Structures are given as structure tokens and as C-alpha cells.
TrEMBL record:
<feature type="binding site">
    <location>
        <position position="453"/>
    </location>
    <ligand>
        <name>(6S)-NADPHX</name>
    </ligand>
</feature>
<dbReference type="InterPro" id="IPR030677">
    <property type="entry name" value="Nnr"/>
</dbReference>
<feature type="domain" description="YjeF N-terminal">
    <location>
        <begin position="21"/>
        <end position="233"/>
    </location>
</feature>
<dbReference type="GO" id="GO:0052855">
    <property type="term" value="F:ADP-dependent NAD(P)H-hydrate dehydratase activity"/>
</dbReference>
<dbReference type="GO" id="GO:0005524">
    <property type="term" value="F:ATP binding"/>
</dbReference>
<keyword id="KW-0479">Metal-binding</keyword>
<dbReference type="InterPro" id="IPR000631">
    <property type="entry name" value="CARKD"/>
</dbReference>
<keyword id="KW-0630">Potassium</keyword>
<feature type="binding site">
    <location>
        <position position="131"/>
    </location>
    <ligand>
        <name>K(+)</name>
    </ligand>
</feature>
<comment type="function">
    <text>Catalyzes the dehydration of the S-form of NAD(P)HX at the expense of ADP, which is converted to AMP. Together with NAD(P)HX epimerase, which catalyzes the epimerization of the S- and R-forms, the enzyme allows the repair of both epimers of NAD(P)HX, a damaged form of NAD(P)H that is a result of enzymatic or heat-dependent hydration.</text>
</comment>
<feature type="binding site">
    <location>
        <position position="332"/>
    </location>
    <ligand>
        <name>(6S)-NADPHX</name>
    </ligand>
</feature>
<keyword id="KW-0413">Isomerase</keyword>
<keyword id="KW-0521">NADP</keyword>
<protein>
    <recommendedName>
        <fullName>Bifunctional NAD(P)H-hydrate repair enzyme</fullName>
        <ecNumber>4.2.1.136</ecNumber>
        <ecNumber>5.1.99.6</ecNumber>
    </recommendedName>
</protein>
<keyword id="KW-0808">Transferase</keyword>
<comment type="similarity">
    <text>In the N-terminal section; belongs to the NnrE/AIBP family.</text>
</comment>
<dbReference type="Pfam" id="PF03853">
    <property type="entry name" value="YjeF_N"/>
</dbReference>
């Protein structure tokens, strides 16, 4: 069945790695007559193409040498049969193609599809390009004629529908394929299709939703090719954002938790005033509905009042009761956070660690041991690193983290036994014994200073009332992104305004 890749509130959408997809394909092929899957795939592509471009005069289908190209040839046969004018450019060789692809080639030829050595000229916005160059079998960066066709498709006035995966994107990781490695940014001239639509076949692939996936895949559709839900375990999943539960009338502030935000190195210490970061986290917790929010600034008492935020209670570190609070530690913490971290790690009942708290832990073996010990005593801990902070914790670089974000999040879970939010486009939320979630809310308007502090405060507010730290983290990330998605388009999204837009 063809459907948009939008999770239902009652059922997450599973995402499968290429290895699992191959196993599912093999199992399906074993029980179906030959060529069935490719015919279903081609029909799904043709149907979606007709729906997306009902008035197309020309449909250009660029086909690669493997079965992704076979899907394109099958779609060409189907579209020609439905009355569209199809031009196929094919990079394959009939003698080396798979039996499925050869069968679809014969069907396309029999249907009267036009084959051309080069892309058609003069496509208009109502026409359509179909990228069937590479799918899950892509192993290296496109070069030569394939790279030329990718460039032509990206430059075309007609939108592109990618079959299974945009060519040049890794289905597993959402990074791009470059010679011998993977890249986490779209370098000028990098050979990757920028699709307006992607139709994922049989399974949904995680790379479509994280790293560069969201930029290159466009709107994602999924056709399971009428195969039953796979037994293979999903590598990650997408979840719908549930509505906030109503507040019981008979609740009081004690039900909604005490949040203690610890951070904000003062200007005096090193000439870097970062109290704003902690204030943002505290403001976020407040607007997200926390019962009481305490702000502990590491500025040696220089700041004594916050007149514009009378609801926030200023506290010295010694005056905080970490066992009875949900502690959010690290936002703007600078070097000053180092001195409080041993106690924070030792005594906080529920803890969100962000920014400089993570950087200090990365640089200090004793703090790492203290963090690991929290798991043994079952105390809830959420880490909220961006890719560079994640890299420091893992002893690697941000590029390597971005090259496989799910693997990096899992590695952090394995190392520290905590719930982890690996931030960035398509944030990954992972925890011990849980299928990671890739967040689908949020947008690049969040790429501005302080929005991570807002997430940390929001996460604290949810962790205060949701016993399962993984569920609290998923909820916080979804709500943070949704607040950005609903933010007025004509207004600059700043972190403070985002914090104030959060809802209890
Ligand atoms: N699996 C399923 O569930 C189903 C799969 N289906 C479809 O099959 C697709 C997978 O097909 P696939 O395995 O043939 O791989 P595909 O993506 O066509 O690429 C491999 C070919 O490309 C070549 N090649 C690689 N890199 C290259 C480069 N840079 N530049 C040039 N060539 C390059 C590579 O050559 P080689 O590396 O071996 O030299 C090989 O020939 C899948 O995405 C879906 O669309 C559906 O029909 C039904 C259900
Ligand atoms: N392009 C993007 N798409 C979606 N979310 C983004 C994007 N860029 C940033 N974000 C989100 O914005 C927040 C930024 O956090 P972070 O990098 O820690 O910033 P800061 O330290 O300035 O607060 C994270 O929640 C991240 O997931
Ligand atoms: K493709």
C-alpha cells in the first residue's frame, strides 16, 4: 500500500537498515512468483508519478545499472501504458543486468518507451524527473555520466521523484557518498539528487530522515509492496507527536516538579558571560509547565536579581536539593561547572546534562565514571549533545558522528547507559534496550544560538513528570521541534521567543 511516511499516533513507523531490507526482500522473493516485487515497485512509482505530475508532457526516467534502474524501467513500461510520454536514459548493460531488470527492460521496450542517450531538453515545472539511478545498492560516489545526469536533474525545472533513495545519499545514514567515505555536508557539486519526493520501497530507510536526508529526500512516501510487516527488527522508528495530556483540575505546583537549572558562568571569571544560556533553559522549563524553577548561576553571585523573570527563584548551589529536584546542568556552564559536577552526578535524582557539563565529562575520566555509576543505581539521566559534544564524549570528530548518527547515539548509550538526544536535523533519541527514535519535527530556523538550552530546560520539565527518561526525551524533542514548526513565519525565531512559545 502506498502512504505518506507520516507516523500514526497509535503506531510508530519502523525504519529498516539496508541489511534488514535485503533479508526482507529475500524472504518475500522466496514466496512470490519471479519478478513480482519489481513489478509492484514499478507500478507504485508509476502511480505516484501520475498523481504528482498529472499534466506532465514528458517524464524523464534516469535508470542506473542495478535493480533501482530496473524499478525505473518497470515504471517506464507502466507509465507508457497509462499514456504518458516517457524518455528513459539507462546506464545498464543487458548482458550484466539482473533477470528482473532484463524482464522490465523488455516490458519497457515492448510498451514503446523512448530510450535516449542523453537527458531530454526543455522540461517544464509540470513535467517530472524520476531518479532510478541508485538505491540501496549504492556503494560509492556517482561519477561520469551518472554524475552528469544528477546535475541535470537537479538543474531541471521539473521536480524529481526519487525511487527508494535519492541517488548519492546513504540509505542507512543520510550522509552522502563520497570517494571512499561519507560526508555530512552538501559540498558544492556533490553528486546527490535533491528530490522533491522520495518513494521508499518495501521498507522505510532511516537515512531519509536524518543528517542530509531531510534536505535531499523531500516529502517521503512509502509502499510496502503488499508485504506483511517485517519480522526483522527496526533500526529506528518515527513517532507521531501526541497532544499534551490535560492537567487534572485538582493538581498543584508540587505535581509538576521542581527544576533546578545549574549553569551560566559569569562574565567576571573568564570574560565570557553565559548566564543567558541558563536563563533560557529555566525560562523554557517555566513555560513548559514546571511547578517551580530554580536558577543556580555559576557567576559567583554577581547577578542578584532577574526582574524580568520574577517567577524564577535564584539559588546558590548549596541551597539546591538535587535529590528532590530534576536538575538541568551545563547550559553556559563554562569552566565553572566543573566544580559542581561531582556532586550533581552523585546526588541528582533526575538529571539532564547539556553543553559544558558534557564537555567537562568528556575531558575527565573520574566524571565519566560517576556518570556511568548513575545507571547502576537506576537514576534517570538524559544527555543532550550536539554532534561536536557527542564527538568529544566518544573521542572522535563531529564529521564521524554525522556520518552515522544512529550509530553515534547508540555508542553513547553503550558508553554511559543514559538516554541520549543527539541533536541536529533529524535528532536521534536513544536509550538502553529501546529502539531509537528519529524526530521528524523542527526545522533549520532552530539553527540559532540558545535553542539547545531551551531543549534542555524543556527536557527537564518533562523528565520531572514522566518516569521513563526515554519517553520524556522523545516528548521534549518532538515538542521543541513542533514549537519551531508552528512559530510565526514573519517573526525571527530566537531562543527566548521559542522558550516562551512552549506550552505546559
Ligand atoms: N531490496 C528490495 O527490497 C527491493 C529492491 N528493489 C529495488 O532494487 C534496488 C536495489 O537494487 P540493487 O541491489 O541492484 O542496487 P542498486 O541500488 O540498483 O545499485 C547497485 C548497482 O549500481 C552499481 N553502482 C553502485 N554504485 C555505483 C556508482 N557510484 N556508479 C555507478 N554504478 C554504481 C552497482 O555496480 P557494482 O558496484 O556492482 O559495480 C550495481 O550494479 C532498491 O533500491 C530498489 O529500488 C525493488 O525492486 C524491490 C524490492
Ligand atoms: N537544521 C535543523 N533542523 C532541525 N533542528 C535543528 C536544526 N539546527 C538545529 N536544530 C536544533 O536546535 C537545537 C540547537 O542546539 P545546540 O546546537 O545545542 O545550540 P545552542 O548550544 O546554541 O543552544 C537542537 O535541538 C537541534 O536539534
Ligand atoms: K534512486
Amino acid at each position: 500500500m502506498l502512504r505518506p511516511a507520516v507516523p500514526d499516533p497509535s503506531r510508530p513507523l519502523p525504519l529498516h537498515a539496508v541489511s534488514a531490507t535485503r533479508a526482507i526482500e529475500a524472504a518475500a522473493a522466496a514466496i512470490l512468483p519471479p519478478h513480482t516485487l519489481m513489478q509492484r515497485a514499478g507500478l507504485a512509482v508509476a502511480r505516484l508519478a501520475r498523481a504528482l505530475a498529472p499534466h506532465a508532457r514528458t517524464i524523464w526516467i534516469a535508470c542506473g545499472p542495478g535493480n533501482n534502474g530496473g524499478d525505473g524501467l518497470e515504471a517506464a513500461a507502466q507509465l507508457q501504458g497509462l499514456g504518458s510520454s516517457v524518455v528513459v536514459t539507462w546506464l545498464g548493460d543487458p548482458d550484466r543486468a539482473s533477470p528482473d531488470t532484463r524482464a522490465s527492460l523488455a516490458r519497457a521496450q515492448a510498451a514503446g518507451v523512448g530510450f535516449a542517450p542523453a537527458p531530454p531538453d526543455g522540461l517544464t515545472p509540470r513535467d517530472l524527473c524520476i531518479d532510478a539511478l541508485l538505491g540501496i545498492g549504492a556503494r560509492r560516489a556517482p561519477q561520469g555520466r551518472m554524475a552528469e545526469w544528477i546535475a541535470a536533474m537537479n538543474a531541471s525545472a521539473a521536480p524529481t521523484l526519487a525511487v527508494d533513495v535519492p541517488t548519492g545519499l546513504s540509505a542507512d545514514t543520510g550522509s552522502t557518498l563520497i570517494s571512499g567515505a561519507q560526508s555530512d555536508h552538501l559540498a558544492p557539486g556533490s553528486s546527490v539528487i535533491h528530490a522533491k519526493f522520495t518513494l521508499s520501497l518495501l521498507t522505510l530507510k532511516p537515512g531519509l530522515f536524518t543528517a542530509l536526508g531531510r534536505d535531499t529526500a523531500g516529502t517521503v512516501w512509502w509502499d510496502d509492496l503488499d508485504m506483511p510487516p517485517p519480522a526483522e527488527s527496526a533500526v529506528a522508528e518515527l513517532r507521531a507527536t501526541p497532544p499534551r495530556p490535560p492537567r487534572p483540575q485538582a493538581s498543584h505546583k508540587g505535581h509538576w516538579g521542581d527544576i533546578a537549572v545549574i549553569g551560566g558562568e559569569g562574565l567576571a571569571r573568564r570574560g565570557r558571560g553565559m548566564t543567558g544560556a541558563a536563563q533560557l533553559a529555566a525560562t523554557a522549563a517555566l513555560h513548559a509547565g514546571a511547578g517551580r524553577v530554580m536558577l543556580c548561576l555559576l557567576d559567583e553571585g554577581a547577578l542578584s536579581a532577574l526582574p524580568e523573570q520574577a517567577e524564577l527563584m535564584l539559588r546558590r548551589f548549596e541551597a539546591i536539593d538535587p535529590q528532590r529536584s530534576t536538575v538541568v546542568c551545563g547550559c553556559g556552564g563554562g569552566e565553572a561547572v566543573q566544580t559542581v559536577l561531582p556532586e550533581v552526578l552523585e546526588h541528582s535524582a533526575r538529571l539532564v546534562l547539556d553543553a559544558d557539563a558534557l564537555n567537562r565529562i568528556a575531558a575527565d575520566a573520574e566524571l565519566r565514571t560517576r556518570l556511568q555509576r548513575r545507571q547502576q543505581s537506576h537514576r534517570a539521566t538524559v544527555l543532550t549533545p550536539h554532534p561536536l559534544e557527542a564527538a568529544r564524549l566518544l573521542g572522535t570528530d563531529a564529521h564521524s558522528v554525522q556520518a552515522d548518527r544512529i550509530a553515534a547515539a547508540r555508542a553513547l548509550v553503550a558508553a554511559f547507559g543514559c538516554t541520549v538526544i543527539l541533536k541536529g536535523s533529524g535528532s536521534i533519541i536513544a536509550a538502553p534496550d529501546r529502539t531509537p527514535v528519529i524526530n521528524t519535527t523542527g526545522n533549520a530556523r532552530l539553527a540559532t544560538g540558545g535553542t539547545g538550552d531551551v531543549l534542555a530546560g524543556l527536557c527537564g520539565a518533562r523528565l520531572a513528570v514522566v518516569p521513563d527518561p526515554f519517553e520524556a526525551a522523545v516528548t521534549a524533542v518532538q515538542e521543541h521541534g513542533a514549537a519551531a514548526d508552528h512559530f510565526p513565519p514573519a517573526q525571527a525565531l530566537t531562543a527566548l521567543r521559542l522558550a516562551q512559545a512552549l506550552q505546559p
